Amino acid sequence: MVAIDPVKNPADVLKATLPGAVQDVVEFAGETTLVVDPKQIIPVMRVLRDTPGLIFNFMSDVSAVDYWEPGGVYDRPGRFAVSYHLYSMLYNVRLRVKVYLDEDEPEVETVCGIWPAANWLEREAMDLMGITFLNHPDPRRLLMPDDWNGHPHRRDTPLGYEIVQFSFNADEIMKHKPFVEE
Amino acid sequence: MTDKAALDSAITEWAGSLDDVKNLVSERALTGETMLLNMGPHHPSTHGVLRLLLELDGEEIITCLPDIGFLHTGIEKTIESKTYEKGVPCTDRMDYLSPMSNNAVFCMAIEKLADIDVPERAQVIRVICLELSRIASHLVWLGTHAIDLGAMSVFLYCFREREKILDMFEMISGQRMMGSYLRPGGVWRDLTADFLPALEVFLDDFMRRVDDYEKLLTANPLWVDRTQGIGVIEPDVALAWGLSGASLRGSGVNWDIRKAMPYSGYEQYDFNVPLGEHGDVFDRYYCRIRELRESHKILRQAVKRLPSAGGGFRTDNRKFAPPPRAELGQSMEAVIHHFKLWTEGFPAPDQEVYVAIESPRGEIGCYLHGTGGNKPRRVHFKTPSFMHIQAIPEMSRNHMIADLVAIVGSIDCVLGDCDR
């Protein structure tokens, strides 16, 4: 049934078709992560889904990560990252595509048009992590109540307790208190 | 007040909450031509607290908008504040009908991230636990699915068998449901002496019980009428919406993670993956019924494999698993390891992994991101119920309300699993 052999290295295909889209390739514990340019997420995903030899036809998961550490520092290209976990049912291969997003405007184009399954997964990331998915067909909150202030899965949202403020860090902590309104 | 004015004022009063959904329902709902009806969150056949906002033309469903989040407990956030091993009990509470698969996927993600190996005996014990919880979970599904469609006695029979499985879980883990029995590097303790005899008794009896369920349902014309041709989802549509497990295999797509990407030594067991043809409620039902028989087959093989499986029930690597109690009185290192593990935990690298296994409902995935320290940066569970509830509108279009009950039952959703 498989007419075309699977492509060993998806990054090569992307580098040939979309120069500059792949920023980094990370291998860890047998998993491949392609770090791509968030502006080119749609063409990248189309290539991954439609190129013979890749055919990532199954959207497994969309997870958002926050790299914020107390003090507001992070050692990554952006504060947020969104990881798309793709699976190719034909070739039995998994792939992670990751985009780094910046702190002030964490936004990336939605991939709902490519895999409808991404709809709720993106809404969840939007709700809990505050990532904006541009052109999303149904950008409502999913899990939290509509009147909730803030995004609970961000690392600066306290888990049931408040960080103690001292005079030297009072302003810094105040900035990250999502429930405090002027 | 004329009828027209009464209608207008009713619509205006409603406008506040209609604003949210006005792009999602048809134009006719805004003029009052079709009716908006809330089903749930307390409806008995929504299997938990699922709210379905239905737009109805008579009894026909035009639009269905699932609303979830009533059981959102922030388990992922809670795990971020705990060491890796202390996160395991939290995962029990997600899919409360098969806690063992949640334990398994979380432990396997930790094992992949921190590079912990699991002895063979522990793997076989895990397979026994996973298949037992598959049976237990399918029994609850079968009982509730049948009771939704009016077959009362199946429910009672299913819960009778399930109780025996829960008794066995109590023997090994001390708890009927939330056992947290699977731990990083293996399982909590070895199988107890009374477990295997109880399992034998259960296995000897179980196939006859499945025959009984089939006699009550598969051959029952009422059941067939209510389920065949209802909630059809084509294979390509099912894939696009990310269905998995029996809900996907009911449409004829042969994808079982136990076969495709074997874990815990599933490649050594001989079992079939039941497939449906039409993708309707009946095929999904019949896939799961046959899965009960396949799980029985796997359990038989696992019991046979157990005596020859080498290694202990948990890894000997003392950096990840605590030493046995007896060692604490004799070895200084054992005391240090014990203390370090239960206070600080073990570190895992600042990397990310994604592990997926075949839970009773479908693909349950765990995305785990370490910090280099003893707590995870981010845990995210991709849960099958979440994806399946998302596909309810696709399956229920142009069906009757009574069929919606059958459809919700057939995708086997657990709201704790969905909302986490």
Description:
The complex is a heterodimer of chains A (about 180) and B (about 425). Chain A is an alpha/beta fold. Chain A has helices spanning about 10-15, 40-50, 120-130, 170-175, and strands at about 20-30, 30-35, 60-65, 80-90, 95-100, 105-110, 130-135. Chain A has a single domain (about 10-140), classed as Beta Polymerase, domain 2, CATH 3.30.460. Chain A contains 4 helices and 7 strands. The termini of chain A are far apart. Chain B has about 425 residues and is mainly alpha-helical. In chain B, the strands form 3 sheets. A 3-stranded antiparallel β-sheet of chain B has the order 1-2-3. In chain B, strands 6-7-8 form a 3-stranded antiparallel β-sheet. Chain B folds into 2 domains: about 5-65, no CATH class; about 75-315 and about 345-420, Orthogonal Bundle (Cytochrome-c3 Hydrogenase, chain B), CATH 1.10.645.10. Chain B is built from 18 helices and 8 strands. The radius of gyration of chain B is 24 Å and the shape is globular. The longest helix of chain B has 29 residues, at about 120-150. Chains A and B meet through strand 3 and helix 3 of A and helix 3, strand 6, strand 7, strand 8 and helix 15 of B.
End-to-end distance of chain B, in Å?
A: 48 Å
Helices and strands of chain B, in N-to-C order? Answer: HHEEEHHHHHEEHHHHHHHEEEHHHH
The two chains with the largest interface, and their residue counts, are: A-B, 40 and 40 residues
Query: Structurally, how many domains make up the residues of chain A?
Result: 1
Q: What class would the helix/strand composition of chain A place it in? A: alpha/beta
N-to-C span of chain A? 64 Å
